[in-house]
């Protein structure tokens, strides 16, 4: 059980470190004599940008990366994102 939770946390941290898309749904209802009915529903795709703090947290696990400056971490993040996108495009997965 602990291993599964740790894996979930690592995946969530990685997702936040590289950025991700999320779907937001807003529904508007109208109350009338017949009860509530859906008037409008808006579905939006929102981009959540990469978080440098999450990347720093991941870097703590890597001993040779722990002492990098913010600029070096930013460059490493860009390299990792490019690598992930390349591997995911081969598998046809969308970030």
Name some characteristics of this structure.
95 residues, elongated
Overall shape: elongated
- What is the distance, rounded to the nearest whole angstrom, between the alpha carbons of the first and last residues? 27 Å
Report strand order across the widest sheet: 1-2
* Total of DSSP H or I helical runs spanning 4+ residues: 3
Binned, the helix content reads: 40-55%
- Rg measurement, Å: 20 Å
Number of domains: 1
Low-confidence stretches: none
Can you summarize the main beta sheet? Answer: 2 strands, antiparallel
Q: What series of H and E elements makes up the topology? A: HEEHH
Number of DSSP strand runs: 2
Topology overview:
Blueprint: H1 2-18, E1 20-32, E2 35-48, H2 52-59, H3 70-91
Antiparallel strand pairs: 1-2
């Amino acid at each position: 059980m602990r291993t599964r939770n740790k894996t979930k946390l690592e995946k969530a941290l990685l997702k936040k470190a590289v950025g991700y898309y999320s779907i937001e749904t807003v529904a508007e209802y109208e109350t009338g004599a017949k009860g509530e009915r859906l008037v409008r529903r808006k579905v939006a795709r929102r981009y959540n940008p990469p978080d440098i703090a999450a990347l720093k947290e991941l870097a703590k696990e890597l001993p040779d990366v722990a002492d990098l400056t913010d600029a070096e971490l930013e460059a490493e993040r860009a390299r990792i994102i490019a690598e992930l996108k390349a591997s995911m495009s081969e598998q046809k997965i969308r970030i």
